[in-house]
Design a protein that fits this description.
The chain is of the alpha/beta class and 432 residues long. Helix content is 45%, strand content 13%.
């Protein structure tokens, strides 16, 4: 992929980039670009330009997130409190409930406000009485970068709920949540999480967050860069250094599209002249220590809990989940082929790839991946928040400390296996 050089200057957000058609799939269609800018302009009219021009553009780094991360619910609570401070909602108390696989039934019964279609592992449950209540999948605790992105989007939900913003069209509301996250300065976090390919412990997977496409989120981020940061080549490289290659390319091409607009994007957004902008918010104050709101006993309990999953199951039974990887390999191969093929079906350099050829290639590669994956057996700890790799000879999980008591085919079989184990122990006790 071509490496683009870029630079921006002036209140209009004019940028200097190589010419490139928006039909290359790297930027949203023109109509969607206008929709995105209209959504941001609506937030400007409601809240003024201050959140857009004065808030820092956050990256997942200690500069903006100095709080310790232990991988437990207290870490997640601190992360949300930090983001609420960035959003101007520091006065809200934060409550977090973390769900594991076995909590599916309880999770469905929660009065989840606005969760429908949120496409996120961390969501706002309710807001009231001076507190924001969040729910989270246990899996979000495994990766602090992914947790920061999910928490950023959930904070945008809280921001909209606090200010009584809600679109009755659920799909449109979810798109506005994504735009609100960019508006608050969280765009680099959520853009990278909008589509991620991750590999952990030998397992590859694709994750999505939010309702907007990666191209759409990156276009909104580019609007922020073009109007506020206006980075030179080195500055742009630094800002985009934490993004995946695709998202970095999407932002660069979006800057090109913005520079080619007849109406400057700053005008479309309704930004005042730069000399009338409010001062930037102090990062030293925003990233300073959080005010302690727990009693000493709770603080001590939190310090213990914040170890996360390490040693959590010492002396407790866990199981080794053994399954073949054919299905997962096939899904990844098909998804990757369709995504890349979707871009290749657009006219580029005088060539056109038929979608039927892409589908055929995807099915063929999917079959090959399935056959190859069927030869690969993965072995993992059944604890939902652990998932450590387990060799057949291991009797203790090296991460959560659980005693490996048997083999199951899927994590969802864990509770039934534990009940069967207790039954066996009870029968043994009666015989004795």
């Amino acid at each position: 992929m071509e490496v683009l050089r870029a630079g921006c200057q002036g209140d209009s957000g004019a940028c200097y980039l190589p010419s490139m058609s928006e039909d290359d799939g790297f930027v949203p269609p023109a109509a969607e670009q206008e929709e995105l800018l209209a959504g941001l302009a609506g937030l400007m009219r409601r809240f003024g330009a201050e959140p857009w021009v004065s808030s820092p553009l956050l990256t997942p780094s200690p500069e903006f997130f100095p709080d310790r991360w232990g991988g437990g619910a207290p870490s997640l609570r601190r992360l949300l409190r930090r983001l609420l401070r960035y959003a101007g909602l520091e006065s809200l108390a934060v409550e977090v409930t973390v769900y594991g696989i076995e909590d599916e039934r309880a999770r469905e019964g929660q009065p989840v406000a606005g969760r429908g279609g949120s496409l996120c592992d961390l969501w706002l449950v309710s807001l009231g009485g001076g507190a924001a209540r969040f729910g989270a999948e246990g899996s979000v605790l495994a990766d602090p970068v992914a947790a920061a992105a999910a928490a950023a989007r959930a904070t945008a939900q809280a921001f909209r709920a606090f200010h009584r913003l809600y679109d009755a069209n659920g799909g449109r509301e979810q798109r506005l949540v994504d735009l609100t996250a960019v508006f608050l300065g969280f765009g680099l976090l959520t853009a990278d999480a909008s589509l991620r390919y991750v590999s952990r412990g030998g397992r590859a997977s694709q994750t999505r967050q939010g309702s907007l496409s990666p191209q759409a989120v990156c276009f909104a981020v580019a609007a922020r860069l073009a109007t506020v940061e206006q980075p030179d080549t080195k500055g742009l490289k630094r800002l985009l250094g934490g993004l995946q290659a695709n998202q970095g390319a999407f932002v660069r091409r979006s800057l090109m599209a913005i520079s080619a607009r007849e109406t400057p994007v700053a005008t479309t957004l309704g930004l005042p002249p730069r000399e009338a902008w409010p001062a930037r918010r102090s990062l030293a104050a925003l990233a300073g220590p959080l005010v302690a709101d727990e009693e000493d006993a709770e603080a001590r309990e939190e310090a213990v809990e914040d170890r996360g999953v390490v040693g959590k199951n010492a002396g407790k039974p866990v199981f080794r989940v053994e399954r073949r990887s054919g299905g997962r390999f096939a899904r990844l191969a098909v998804m990757a082929t369709m995504i890349l093929g979707g871009m290749a079906t657009r006219p580029q350099m005088g060539e056109l790839v038929a979608m039927s050829d892409v589908m055929a290639a995807g099915l063929g590669l999917g079959l090959v991946a399935f056959l190859v994956g069927s030869l690969v057996r993965e072995r993992r700890c059944s604890e939902p928040k652990c998932g450590a790799s387990l060799r057949p000879e291991m009797t203790i999980c090296p991460r959560c400390g659980g005693a490996v008591m048997g083999v199951i085919k899927h994590p969802r079989e864990r509770l039934a296996a534990e009940e069967a184990l207790r039954g066996q122990e009870g029968a043994s006790g009666e015989q004795a």
